[in-house]
């Protein structure tokens, strides 16, 4: 059975239809759709997207559509263009959390692992601060508490800074309003990660 892939961006006229067209062009092994969190229904792909795809010999026939509960249920994987898209979609569709990723997160295991470690480090830091504050707030002055707190969480902050320095962007920036070079840069980023996506999903099925 073919895996069902849903690409999601903002308006479903630039990035997600580009990703949909590239994946359809690269492989026949998937069912593919795209949608936008704030998309109108029935809009064409942007001229920049169509021009870049035409230059690369990739066909596209597209009409925009909004994300719907039916699309979310249909998809085996939901791949967003940015972390913000991902968080907004999960907030709206909590049941999709385990199958929703940014495209770059899904194709780059190392970045995904760093991000998971970073989320755990943030949560642990807040818990450590809360426990320390609860235990010591009545024992010290505000200035002493602030100083001791910093000493108490110093290693945690260093670990977070180290992880943040290793974390690359998980976003594919919106080319809307840009020239052909901007759209081509977006295309190249999407194309590279679609190639990685195909390899990863092909390996999962073996």
Automatic annotation (TrEMBL):
Annotated Pfam families: LMWPc
Protein known as: Protein-tyrosine phosphatase
GO molecular function, one term: protein tyrosine phosphatase activity
InterPro entries in the record: LMW_PTPase (IPR050438), Ptyr_pPase (IPR023485), Ptyr_pPase_sf (IPR036196), Tyr_phospatase_low_mol_wt (IPR017867)
Domain Phosphotyrosine protein phosphatase I as annotated: residue spans: 3-200
Domain of life: Bacteria
Coiled coil segments of this chain: none
Organism of this sequence: Melghiribacillus thermohalophilus
Active site: 9 (nucleophile), 15
Alphabetical keyword list: Hydrolase, Protein phosphatase
Family, similarity comment: Belongs to the low molecular weight phosphotyrosine protein phosphatase family.
């Amino acid at each position: 059975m073919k895996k069902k892939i849903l690409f999601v961006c903002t308006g479903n006229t630039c990035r997600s239809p580009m990703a949909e067209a590239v994946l359809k062009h690269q492989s026949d092994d998937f069912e593919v759709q795209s949608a936008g969190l704030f998309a109108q229904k029935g809009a064409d792909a942007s001229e920049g997207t169509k021009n870049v795809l035409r230059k690369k010999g990739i066909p596209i026939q597209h009409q925009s559509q909004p994300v719907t509960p039916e699309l979310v249920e249909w998809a085996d994987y939901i791949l967003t263009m940015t972390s913000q898209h991902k968080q907004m979609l999960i907030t709206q569709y909590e049941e999709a959390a385990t199958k929703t990723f940014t495209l770059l997160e899904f194709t780059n295991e190392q970045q995904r692992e760093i991000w998971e470690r970073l989320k755990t480090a943030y949560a642990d830091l807040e818990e450590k601060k809360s426990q320390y504050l609860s235990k010591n707030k009545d024992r010290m002055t505000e200035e002493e508490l602030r100083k001791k707190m910093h000493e108490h969480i110093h290693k945690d902050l260093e670990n977070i800074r180290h992880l943040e320095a290793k974390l690359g962007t998980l976003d594919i920036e919106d080319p809307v309003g840009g020239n052909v070079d901007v759209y081509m840069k977006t295309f190249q980023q999407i194309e590279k990660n679609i190639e990685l996506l195909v390899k990863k999903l092909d390996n999962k099925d073996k």
